[in-house]
């Protein structure tokens, strides 16, 4: 496309400290969140005639960490298509050549709030179990593609008021070092499993721990293991769950084991003490049963030794969760990941710049030719999901056709209110 024509397609506006330069089809930009990679805005897409979310990645190739994450996210978002993983609608850069290349804009389905805002709400068993079911479905789908997340947290999970839920990111690359003896970068570690904190080998149920921590927080209304740094994170775990057995300690490498053995010994608390009845709605026999099922699930997910922790498939079969079981959601065919060396890649800044630019161009080519994941581009790759199967808040209350819970009623739009009043300040 010639330079002038391309220039005319974009316009710029200031959002906080940043300038967004976006295609003119996206109007009415408003900041809705920010993460490690930059600011996220909501916008109206005049082509798709729907609201979308736009994330700006500023110079994503500037260092190894940013570049690997941005590249991995682009590649995986293009491949994965599941109702509980955020869907990609568009990718573009306003710059015209590789030499000028600076920023990438990722356009996604727009959701109402992240899970940090939902944690503040009083959830009944129906909503709680439905949200957990969807987290497990999304994670199972990633596992089926060989992606183990390892860094699931409430700020990277988004929901709509119809109680649908999507995971926003793909977690840590297999090669990412995370252990106790690492430099303490400022990142949220509250939800990281013991095997990640302690730098041990891990398997897929590493993500069950994080879902357990998130469930606990939804029940308690506060973070379960609020470690002040990466070392304190371990203290918080053992203070509540107790010092793990000798059998577990033998699996640690020598220097980590020495550290762990030198901590004071804790007996820990029973799950009845950690999650007493008062934390759950217990006004009916049904609710009492559900509370004990919820506690049972927590006690099977929050197990320090991964070899004794429940698996994702077992969690999906647990009585608290399996009421929602739908094989089309749980057993959806796994996505094929095109780049087999995704996690192993090590490149210079210039090489990353080249690779990321190529990914953006590849998307532009594919959409130009009208095909994304075998669908016509005009429909958008991810238009598939929830809205078709899960009636919106208003339609469900009118038609009453849904057996799925919602997060807000017509009169109670607490989710939208939460995201509007605190666009950038939620948990990280
Ligand atoms: P991220 O940069 O992906 O970590 O996102 C930062 C924050 O922006 C999240 O915690 C959400 O609050 C918000 N956000 C990101 N993507 C979306 C989306 N597709 N829909 C709604 N909110 C989003």
From TrEMBL:
Species this protein is from: Salmo trutta (Brown trout)
Similarity section: Belongs to the protein kinase superfamily. CMGC Ser/Thr protein kinase family. MAP kinase subfamily.
Gene3D superfamilies with a match to the protein in the record: Phosphorylase Kinase, domain 1 (3.30.200.20), Transferase(Phosphotransferase) domain 1 (1.10.510.10)
GO-annotated cellular components: cytoplasm
Protein name per Swiss-Prot or TrEMBL: Stress-activated protein kinase JNK
Bias (Polar residues): 403-422
Keywords, comma-separated and alphabetical: ATP-binding, Biological rhythms, Kinase, Magnesium, Nucleotide-binding, Phosphoprotein, Serine/threonine-protein kinase, Transferase
Chief place where the protein resides: cytoplasm
Residue spans of biased composition, Low complexity class: 383-402
Gene: MAPK8
Pfam families for the chain: Pkinase (PF00069)
Function: Responds to activation by environmental stress and pro-inflammatory cytokines by phosphorylating a number of transcription factors, primarily components of AP-1 such as c-Jun and ATF2 and thus regulates AP-1 transcriptional activity. May play a role in the regulation of the circadian clock.
